[in-house]
Amino acid sequence: MVLVKVFTFNLFAENTFVIWDDETKEGAVIDPGNSADEEQKVLTNFISSKNLIIKYLINTHCHIDHILGCSFVKREYNPVYYAPEKDLILLENAQIQAEMFDIIFTKPPTPDQLISEESDLSLGNSQIQFLFTPGHTPGEYCLYFENEKICFTGDVLFKEGIGRTDLWGGDYNTLINSIEIKLLTLPDDVIIYPGHGEASTIGYEKQYNPFLV
Ligand SMILES: [Zn+2]
Predict the structure, then answer these.
(1) I want to staple 131 with a disulfide (CB 3.0 to 4.6 A). Which of 27, 105, 161, 182 is the partner?
(2) Angle at the Cα of 142 (from 184 to 151), degrees rounded to 5?
(3) How far is the centre of ligand 1, averaged over its atoms, from the C-alpha of 23 (Å)?
(4) Ligand 1 centre from 149 Cα, in Å?
(5) pLDDT tens, 7-23?
(6) Is 0.85 surpassed by the pTM of this model?
């Protein structure tokens, strides 16, 4: 079984996820947004308290609020770092993104692996599927655990909202298309964990998301 812990970090109130298999203790950090020292402490204390082995560091996409903690997590745990290929330009320009918001941070390392829909990752007894969902950024992926019925939707789909499309490389029609084809086709009882705000379900969003009804 995959367990999920959510931290809300940095000035963008970004959701950083630690997920792990409760039997093997293999874990992953998704979109580490930790920036301040206290946030790093909260993250490492939690990982230590659960005795987790951090196997992967995964970015759904490479906006600044989702990558602030990448260099720290890589240095601390040396996980295999996965990032979307079409967001590499955002990673390369991370410093420019940071300066726009007066943020001081350490540039993320070069990813070890590029994500594709064929990427086949296991976390203990569970399989991670990558769903290509561009539109908020050109390269974004959602992470889907079919057996556990959970999906990390990054900044693609929020509770009662969708990702903004006015930033570099964003496109509204592409985003709506990604949501309709890749996410709304999942079972209604799949829990979604967005990159900002509260969790929800696919069924709830089909019914109440004002951008989709
Ligand atoms: Zn974003």
Answers:
(1) 182
(2) 65
(3) 32
(4) 23
(5) 999 999 999 999 999 99
(6) yes
